[in-house]
Specification:
Layout (H helix, E strand, L loop, with lengths): L1 H31 L5 H13 L2 H8 L1 E2 L10 H8 L2 E6 L3 E3 L3 E10 L2 E15 L3 E6 L2 E2 L2 E6 L4 E4 L2 E4 L4 E5 L4 E8 L3 E10 L9 E3 L2 E2 L1 H25 L15 E2 L5 E6 L5 E4 L2 E4 L2 E12 L6 E19 L2 E7 L3
Parallel strand pairs: 1-7, 8-14
Antiparallel strand pairs: 2-4, 3-4, 4-5, 5-6, 8-11, 9-10, 9-12, 12-13, 13-15, 16-20, 17-20, 18-19, 20-21, 21-22
Length: about 325
């Protein structure tokens, strides 16, 4: 009877020892996986990709610097994280002050990048499972400028650009793209990749240019002005009309023979200058035809001359209206 009891007791003891050993192994496995320091990083990256800015800030324990918060949620945030590919969570490495560093390797647009996150143990759950938290820090800031515009688009979201500039608090890692696309002004897209809090991104500078639509609109108004000016000069029979072109002669002009025409219309170039958009000097050619009489000899001669001319204008844009004011000097 005693031997049977001993065997039973030994069986129970062995089972208990195996259960304890299994529990220790299970606890270690959990602490290295779902309760490991990589888990908050996984949750943070997932929040970025879902555009959940509030959750991401809470996980990162981040403070938001004085700047625009337009990139911290929704579509803008999802777009920033959309190009993150080939993600690999590295093993945690011990750092001073009971901290650990979790490396995150990934690619953006085919470029291999790494972000290092610092975390600290912040307690336990159910007595055995570790809790990890990010070391608090401020979010980085991305500076954006745009020439002669008070608005732009950043990661697909329209943003205000007071006096052509603004600063945006951003999450990392991520990619940010600024563009300007309008009927009359546009700028080619420019991108910045942010891989870490302490790796500042280069400012995004949008170099605004006049679109073909604006140049066509201005060219049309220039042509309209010159054609109208030539027609009026013909009606008034003037060699020196209120136009950019004129002709001087000492002979008497035969009435009804003056005929002005534009042979070469100016090429339009629009550039930013002093916070405005200016039209470069407009150079063209006009032909004057007329019949004149020599005051001394009475001889009749024909005028058929092409004159070079040049003038400047003031360009005003109000909403969708293009206004061009010729500035003529005599």
């Amino acid at each position: 009877m005693s031997q049977a009891l001993v065997r039973i007791a030994a069986g129970w003891l062995l089972g208990l020892m195996l259960a304890v050993a299994g529990s220790v192994v299970a606890i270690n496995v959990v602490n290295k996986s779902i309760a490991g320091p990589q888990q908050p990083v996984r949750e943070y990256l997932d929040a970025l990709q879902k555009g959940e800015g509030g959750k991401a800030i809470g996980l990162l324990r981040a403070s938001v610097p004085q700047s625009s918060a337009a990139m911290l949620d929704g579509t803008a945030l999802q777009t920033a994280a959309a190009r993150i590919r080939d993600v690999k969570f590295g093993e945690a490495e011990e750092r001073a002050g009971n901290q650990v560093m979790v490396p995150l390797d990934y690619t953006i647009d085919g470029n291999r990048l790494r972000t290092e996150f610092l975390l600290e143990e912040s307690g336990t759950e159910w007595l055995f499972f570790h809790k990890w938290s990010f070391i608090p820090a401020a979010l980085p800031v991305l500076d954006v400028t745009v020439v002669n515009s008070n608005e732009a688009t950043l990661n697909g979201v329209p943003v205000n650009m007071p006096n052509g500039r603004n600063s945006f608090a951003v999450f990392y890692p991520g990619e940010y793209e600024a563009t300007l696309s309008g009927e009359y002004f546009s700028a080619p897209p420019t991108r910045a990749t942010l891989s870490g809090r302490d790796v500042p991104a280069a400012p995004l500078n949008l170099l605004t240019e006049a679109t073909g639509a604006l140049k066509d609109a201005v060219s049309g108004k220039v042509k309209e002005f010159l054609d109208s000016c030539a027609d009026e000069a013909d009606k008034q029979q003037q060699l020196q009309p209120d136009c950019p072109f004129y002709h001087a002669t000492n002979n008497r002009v035969v009435p009804g023979t003056i005929d002005w025409s534009i042979t070469e219309y100016p090429a339009v170039s629009i550039e930013p200058f002093g916070g405005r958009w200016v039209v470069a000097p407009l150079d063209g050619k006009a032909r004057i035809k007329a019949r004149t009489v020599d005051l001394f000899t009475g001889a009749v001669s024909e005028i058929n001359v092409v004159q070079d001319f040049s003038f400047t204008t003031r360009l005003d844009l109000e909403a969708d209206t293009v206004k061009l004011t010729p500035l003529l000097s005599y």
